[in-house]
Amino acid sequence: MIELTDPRLTTYDIVLNADDPTRGPGQGSADAREPAALAGRLRLGGPHALRLTPEELAADPELARYAEEQAALYEHHLVRLALTFVPQTSGLRLKFANVSLQLTSGWGPKPIAHSMDPIRLTDPVQIERVRRLGPQLSLLGADASLGEISRTVGYTTNQPLVQALDLGGSSPAWDFRPTTATELSGTYPLSLVVRCGAGADTELKCTVTAGVEKPLLRRFSRELPDPLQLKAFL
Fold first, then answer.
1. Whether this model's pTM surpasses 0.70
2. Integer Cα distance of 188 and 200 in angstroms
3. Which of 34, 85, 230, 234 is deepest in the core (most CB within 10 A)?
């Protein structure tokens, strides 16, 4: 195992356009109108790629040997991004966000997400459920015939906050959802190792999607205009 220096990712605000432009700004007060674009809510860093050569992995002999053994068939690239949710004092609540990547290659083996991080981040949430029994039933040995009896049961569950999708496929993504206890906020570093054919020209496209609800769920998205060319790092 080795630790690679984190790159200084170029970070910028990203404006998402409505997936359904026909549902333009509605009539009525400003508060009732549906936004035509989602701006000032997300910042994206990267993507940035580093080819994982035996020389780059020399600090770990086992990893370097693995890369050398695979070199005749495959190349591996470490791709890093970061998604930041900009703090808001007002505005529509984000119901979800998604960073999806599309890996394509002109020839050779299909490029895949060999590994991803994070795979899953969860938020511990305390849940309470009330269980009731009506007349003529007994609960814990007590006669409930005189009326309703109830019992509150509490437990902790882990709700997913971030979930990786399509590990081992060509369309990896990270899905973000607020939990009962936590809104979407802060910065999330994202990374994956792409495995592609040796010498192949591999392209990585990135699309960011988010959704708000007012009054109905509405999706906004943007595909980055300049796909990342992994061949540039040969």
1. yes
2. 30
3. 230
Q: Are 50 and 56 in contact (CB under 8 A)?
A: yes
| Residue 62, H or E segment | helix 61-70
Please calculate the CA angle 148-153-156 and round it to the nearest 5 degrees. Answer: 160
For 178-218, the DSSP string reads: --SS--S-EEEEEEEEEEEETT--EEEEEEEEEEEESSSEE
Question: Beta-strand (E) ranges in 5-93?
Answer: 11-18, 37-51, 74-85
What DSSP line would sit under 145-186, residue for residue? TTS-EEEEEEEEEEEEEEEEE-TTSSS-EEEE---SS--S-E
Say what the pLDDT of residue 143 is: 44
Q: Which of 160, 159, 137, 156 is nearest to 147 (CA)?
A: 137
Contact present, 202 and 196 (Cβ < 8 Å): yes
Contacts of 134 (CB under 8 A, 6+ apart): 144, 148
Is residue 45 within 8 Å of 76, Cβ to Cβ? no
Q: Are 201 and 231 in contact (CB under 8 A)?
A: yes
Q: Cα separation of 95 and 80, whole Å?
A: 24
Q: How many angstroms separate the Cα of 185 from the Cα of each of 70, 94, 99?
A: 39, 10, 15
Asked if the peptide bond before residue 21 counts as cis, ω within 30 degrees of 0, the response is no
pLDDT for 232:
40
- Average pLDDT of 35-41? 87
Structure tokens at 205: 């496209």
